[in-house]
Amino acid sequence: MSSFHNLSVKEITRETSKSISISFNIPEDLKATYAFKAGQYITLKTTIDGHEIRRDYSLCSSPKSGELKVAIKEVKDGTFSAFANNQIKVGDVFQVAPPKGRFVFEPNDSKTKNIAAFAAGSGITPVLSIIKCALEEEIHSKVILVYGNKTTGDTMFLNELLELQHQYKDRFSIQFVFSQAQEEDAIYGRIEKSTVNLIVKNKYKHIDIDAFYLCGPEAMIQTVKHVLTDHGVEEDRIHFELFKAAKPAEIEEETTIASGNTKITIIVDEEEATFEMSQKQSILEAALDEDIDAPYSCQGGICSSCLARIKEGKATMRQNNILTENEVAEGLILTCQAHPTTPTIVVDYDDV
Known about the structure:
6-stranded parallel sheet, about 20% helix, about 35% strand, globular, FAD-bd_FR_type, 2Fe-2S, iron, MRET, oxidoreductase
């Protein structure tokens, strides 16, 4: 199980008018704890106006850099993102959980391969880490990035990406897409079917792409996935991470939640707790109501912090954008989305 450690802010960089990057100081005795794979995220925990706030932010540094660095884009009505962009100072201390996440790139320099990434907005954050890792640790592999934003002024890490493109000019290519500006060599519009076709069937048709990494809004990810699979790309070569959950109203229409009660046993940190819960509650909600220290972060089904395994009984998930069919069949659930459907259930957070 993950535990939080206090880390101080080392450096703050203004990336755009609405986004910053933050790096943390890591004590020598915690460096192994905060080692990460490209694409993973960390959970930040703090108190704002008397309320505990947890947020996940993807690491944008490369694993070999020695930096623990995230980017935070200010969103409308965003509690933590507004606080971070306007109030955080060097030296401030946050509780930080060790890196985790399933959207990862693991380099293998013994094999030359090519990857393509599609990112929109702040979805560039984990993709940037993946790009750096591939370029640094797979010295013959090629990387293609398709990156969508409103304008150049809204483009996070623009200069850093251009510097990487110059440094690795024979191995790293960028296709910018701007929805509110017309720029030389950029596509005007959004990342859509024609954009994907341009990349895989036209501009880079001479390159055999081994893996695709997608990060951004759900609509973009679904569009890119559908076009790629229509072109015969196997699903296990398409890796994605959502940065925004579906709206609750949309979820409720798809899944019917039972209205009975369940006797639930929860195992976390090798301790068991048994109690009665309403099937209208998610398993995570019920656990937190009982003051059980279950792991969680987004509570929206787009991270894997609350992952657990059903050992007895059954549950249904309101939505699932992370687990494969095989993983669900093996009993894995996102407890923030899972509602029990049997009179008894045993859920183990340790066995994941």
